Amino acid sequence: MVTLGELARQLGGSVQGDESTQIHSLGTLTDAKSGQIAFLANAKYRQYLEDTQASAVIVSKAHAKYCSTNALVLDNPYLGFAKVAQLLDTTPKAASDIAPTAVISDDARLGEGVCIGANSVIESGVTLGDNVIIGANCFIGKDAKIGRNSQLWSNVSIYHRVELGSDCLVQANTAIGSDGFGYANDKGIWEKIPQLGTVLIGNNVEIGACTTIDRGALENTEIDDNCIIDNQVQIAHNVKIGYGTAIAGCTVVAGSTKVGKHCIIAGMVAITGHVEIADGTSFTGMSMVTKGIKEPGLYSSGIPALTNKEWRRNASRYKHLNEMYKRLQELEKQVEELNNKES
Length: 343
Fold this sequence. Notes:
Blueprint: E1 2-3, H1 4-11, E2 14-16, E3 22-23, E4 25-26, E5 36-39, E6 56-59, H2 61-64, E7 70-73, H3 77-87, E8 103-104, E9 109-110, E10 115-116, E11 121-122, E12 127-128, E13 133-134, E14 139-140, E15 145-146, E16 151-152, E17 157-158, E18 163-164, E19 169-170, E20 175-178, E21 183-186, E22 189-192, E23 199-201, E24 206-207, E25 212-214, E26 221-223, E27 228-229, E28 234-235, E29 240-241, E30 246-247, E31 252-253, E32 258-259, E33 264-265, E34 270-271, E35 276-277, E36 282-283, E37 288-289, E38 298-299, H4 308-318, H5 321-342
Parallel strand pairs: 4-5, 5-6, 6-7, 8-11, 9-12, 10-13, 11-14, 12-15, 13-16, 14-17, 15-18, 16-19, 17-20, 18-23, 19-24, 20-25, 23-26, 24-27, 25-28, 26-29, 27-30, 28-31, 29-32, 30-33, 31-34, 32-35, 33-36, 34-37, 36-38
Antiparallel strand pairs: 1-3, 2-7, 21-22
């Protein structure tokens, strides 16, 4: 429980109304009840300010005059919502203390305040920084390093020599440092290429559930600071992801690709291998990226859904696209010849 005035002081905002109002949780404009705080970040929802039952609403200065209840006035209400959510977060930690069933190598180095959940395995040479939290059934491989204040939820696998920075969060069932997809073909027989690099992950990185990040073949796979990676993302060997980049669910980044800083990659994007993506590039959902991007901007290639009848008709016509192109070229040539004769 916190007062509205205290929230304003911590977030650098101001209160319109009663500063002593008690807030215990968050809610939406339409569903919030007494004791909850809602937020307005999109003007199209302004109509709900009049009837909201929330004890307070996070709003911009421009919208504060429409608020029928107490207001926490901030320059960026959506960022304010995120900050308040952090302050009121009731999510439990992935582990508390060190479970008696955890298996910890004698030469593993554990900082102050480390917690390790039931049945987790910490192998030889591992270093865990202060206040690291390892959930149940995790595996931390030989010589891996995890920085202070980082947390792993259950069933995360961190392979040998992987380095994870400080203040990172890894959701359940993610694997970091698995082998990259490297093979040589000998007359139809696949010969495995040992993946001898590792994965280096910076500070303040969040990685979603069931994501896989492969180790490098010779060099390392690298994720820079402040990146956010969603669920079920595949990052292949030797990929480099720049500072502050966001990658949404089910995206695939093939081997040896370099993604720049502050890129935004929507869901189900496929990026081919051995290309470079410029800083500040954005891709909309289901984009297929088959070559490098030198100029930052917004790129798309996904085809929106059509009725089956429309799609079948267009697909049938697509088969004749090259023929139609040649016919169009011939028509343009004939028109040009006619124009030349007339002139």
